[in-house]
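Structure in, sequence out. Go:
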């Protein structure tokens, strides 16, 4: 998210410690911390005990103690730039509010998509898949007419085209695809790897094979589409187990 990247750039330049306390800068706790302590001066009198009490008050669920967070805060390098504290405070507050409003809008849209997709016949089959509403709307009609899973994947535009002639072989971007359906699987797949170990492993395995991020996301998107094809073919939903793996008859994803 561009707004989060812009927010991250502010502590990088003016207060690196404010960015290192929590793992996810766009999390609720990190947002509240930056809003309360937007500058080094604002946190100058903060103690480890006070930081731990503040975290408990804001529902921080990590097992890290206040002393660990406090040490991380003060172990960060000093800011290279130190403009007026009031200016930095105002910049951080404005950017935090922008991120919070954006996240609220995303949650509202997610709820609207879920509500709209509830009557769809494929919803029970895909209920365990994260943020599946937009994908159902765009991929559902293709699922109904696709004869094979490769047909589904090709029309969704997440598989390349191979041109071979004699000793020559090239792999190119697929232009012949459903343009509306093409935009749905990649962001869905990118989000899914943050909430599913199964999806994260596919992505990380692709990255370990030196695949670039967009390529790895397309590999993951093909895995999800194979999953959807298997669910529709068998008439049974995929199920998450305790380890977040999904039971499906779909074959393992290709890494091409």
């Amino acid at each position: 998210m561009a707004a989060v990247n812009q927010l991250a750039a502010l502590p990088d330049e003016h207060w690196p410690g404010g960015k290192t306390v929590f793992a996810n800068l766009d999390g609720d706790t990190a947002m509240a911390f930056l809003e309360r302590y937007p500058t080094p001066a604002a946190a100058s009198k903060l103690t480890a005990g006070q930081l731990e009490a503040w975290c408990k008050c804001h529902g921080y669920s990590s097992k890290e103690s206040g002393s660990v967070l406090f040490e991380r805060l003060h172990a960060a390098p000093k800011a290279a730039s130190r403009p007026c504290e009031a200016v930095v405070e105002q910049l951080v507050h404005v950017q935090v509010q922008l991120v919070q409003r954006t996240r609220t809008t995303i949650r509202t849209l997610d709820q609207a998509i879920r509500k709209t997709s509830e009557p769809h016949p494929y919803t029970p089959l895909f209920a365990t898949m994260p943020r599946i509403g937009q994908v159902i709307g765009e991929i559902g009609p293709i699922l109904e007419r696709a004869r094979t899973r490769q047909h589904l994947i090709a029309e969704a535009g997440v598989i390349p085209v191979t041109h071979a002639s004699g000793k020559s072989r090239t792999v190119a971007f697929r232009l012949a695809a459903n343009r509306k359906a093409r935009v749905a699987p990649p962001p869905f797949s990118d989000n899914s790897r943050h909430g599913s170990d199964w999806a994260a492993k596919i992505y990380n395995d692709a990255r370990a094979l030196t695949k670039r991020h967009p390529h790895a996301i397309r590999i993951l998107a093909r895995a999800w589409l194979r999953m959807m094809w298997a669910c529709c073919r068998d008439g049974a939903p995929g199920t998450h187990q305790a380890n977040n793996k999904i039971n499906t008859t779909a074959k393992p994803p290709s890494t091409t």
